[in-house]
Design goal:
heterodimer; A: alpha/beta; Rossmann fold; six-stranded parallel beta sheet; globular; B: alpha/beta; two-stranded antiparallel sheet
Chain lengths: 179, 201
Amino acid sequence: MAQARLILEELKKNHVTHIISLPDNSSAMLLGLLSADRDIRLISVTREGEAFAIAAGLWIGGKVPVVLVQNTGFFESGDSFRGTITRLRVPLVCLITYRGYAKLVSWRLEARREALDAETLSRADLDSAALVTEATLKAWGLPFDFLHADEDVAKISEAFRKTKENEQPFAFLITQDMT
Amino acid sequence: MLTKHELLEPLARLRGNAVVITCMGVTRPWARYSESELDFASADSAMGHTADFALGIALARPQRKVICLNGDGSMLMTLGTLVTAAQAAARNLFLFVIQNDIYELTGNQPIPGAGRVDFAVLARGAGFLRVYSFDDANSYAASLPEVLSGAGPVLVVVKVEPGSEGPISRSEREASDYLKVSLADSGRRLRRALDAPDPVN
């Protein structure tokens, strides 16, 4: 698992000005740090779709926003993400917590992420949010990588470089609760 | 009820160097009054996300007024943004809700709550401290300088006559300059305009 403190430090290295978020358990530690942080402003939203539109506006105004939401919230954000971040070519780094990832791994169903059927999607012992996460990101043209542990945190800086170079967003899937 | 001309003409005179974000039924009409590089059409964008997009610009540029001309149907899609904007205390955000009670671009179907929904009440309940409602041109024109002079976030409900704007595209066929280019190019243009030296309004 990745430490929230390390993630925050990496974001600061990249001059992030705002984090727009709706809380979940996995991101609670980072949000706790942000609530007392003087360098990065935390903007709380009522629904995740707002986060992407606000981030687009912040970027238009010259700021460096990051969106922090759960995978379920990303699904809710579909048209907002498509219509603002993608259409405007906003170089946005997104942090998406991966609800249901642990069950996916424990049932060794990672290989079925893109071969979904009604039976699998309705299994009570699985979280369907996890099953559709990666397929959704691919369908919506959002490249991604994983943040499993502390050693992955350094990848965030490389993502910032790539987003600017390609004028394209990039997501990190955070697979475990931050500590 | 105001005509679109009565809504937009005074606003174009008084906007100064404010950013103006348009959407839906006022997108084309606004371009008849303004050719500013600080204008941005939220067209070919995310439906219902004009107000939150404008809020982002306002938060990024607190010294710059941001006027958002939102539709009533669009506002209904993201009512939570009223709460977010009030919570974020965007003092430079002037959020207009153009209320004609219809989805004008899709053939004038009534919005949910047409004739009943009160955006001023919703805004006050969300935490907006300055809220105005206008349904006649004279009081609107007389009050607009005051509306635009104080601190925001401000919510301005303006009742306008139903219109007949058709669907909006981004293409060379559009008469409005700011609709001739892609959303991405429009965004780049606004970023450049915001970076250009400009006195604080």
